[in-house]
Write a structure and sequence with these properties.
heterodimer, A: eight-stranded mixed beta sheet, six-stranded mixed beta sheet, B: five-stranded mixed beta sheet, 2 helices
Amino acid sequence: MNSATLPIELPELTQDDLTRYSRHLILPEVGVEGQRKLKAARVLCVGTGGLGSPLALYLAAAGVGTLGLVDFDVVDASNLQRQIIHSTADIGRKKLDSAEEKLTALNPALNVVKHETMLSSANALDILKDYDVIADGTDNFPTRYLVNDACVLLGKPNAYGSIFRFEGQASVFAAKDGPCYRCLYPEPPPPGLVPSCAEGGVLGILPGLIGVIQATEAIKLILGIGEPLIGRLLLVDALKLRFRELKLRKNPDCPVCGTHPTVTKLIDYEQFCGIRPETKEEQAVKNGIPQLSVKDLKKRMDAGENLFILDVREPFEYQIANIGGKLIPQGEVPQRLAEIDRDREIIVQCKSGGRSQRIAEFLKQSGYPKVANVSGGILAWSDQIDPSVPKY
Amino acid sequence: MTIFIPTPLRQFTGDKDTVAVSASTVAGALDELTQTHPDLRKHLFTSEGKLRAFVNVYLNDEDVRYLPEKDATKVSPTDTLSIIPSIAGGCQANRPN
């Protein structure tokens, strides 16, 4: 059987359910029984970004009873081109909170479980074990292999989707008798060879297409209907709008799902993907930008150094907490360079150090001679320098 | 025959998404492709000339690794060869910034 394993006792449908899901109920393939299966189902979305947004919205609309969301990121303006679960007003908010609000507004009966964490070998089995179907929408190879191996070890189907520029892939892995991600790709590419969406770009609509395919597969697995994408890799070329399908075979020698598996517990996926921890030098300078600790920043401020602190967060974040920097939201920096003094050292700061690093790199490219990034941002400031600065 | 070039590798084929070759086997087709576009070679093959583990080659819809004659399989002009490298894109969660 390739469908998801659901409890034998299915929940009853309420009068509201009968009204809300009437278009499902009149489909013989779904019907009352199928809708009750959806209501009982628990789906985990790994990531609430490009793929996770449409995926979670459609699953919530379809009446899936419990949606787990794994994310620890905050909404950034550059997400909104494709991550349709988040709105402009959500910039700076936790993606989990923003997603929960939209999902429960759409379907108040939905049970949202928020996992505010980075999925790791230490927590993956514990998080995944409570779900019937896993939908992997992450953007990096270590997490892809981690989710795959955890799904195989737990016997959970993985509705897989992946995107790059104008091209997408979808399949269902780790279903019983079907191949897994490692059958397709036994090894990851060396780091740096395959760019991420952040580096290579992605057409905003593409995660919509692929995420909805993942949602379709999740729903089919729950209902046990149709032919799931097991043993098939769907390739989507958005530019030509061509869909192609390749056969995937279960590799009998697969190290995790083969007949004699060598991977029987979760491993170190960063190491497996050739990613080594940052060295001291890399921590000090990232992409040519010196990383300034909040402690060193405080020392230099106390010493009365002539620093230009540029806060690139949004105005509402600045209102919540600031360390007296000049506020220019990251999206406005390119148009407001005239307000940033070229002759002084520019110390760029944001909430946790990600946005400010990108702006610091931009300023350097724009010819600013001395630019540094405050590592850890205002959160680190609040933690290490001044606890009276509120965290948000 | 036609070889489909995936997005990440198009930078090595002058942005072409397909390349036509006239070889008579899968190995011959890949050889012709990498002779015309030498920069592709190191992305597809190891220094020992083995296909890299994160690159899959499909003859029509079948993985070449599972064909009885593997890359010695004969090809006809109407066949297609697809190179499918792994891509990881999805969202930026689970990557600390």
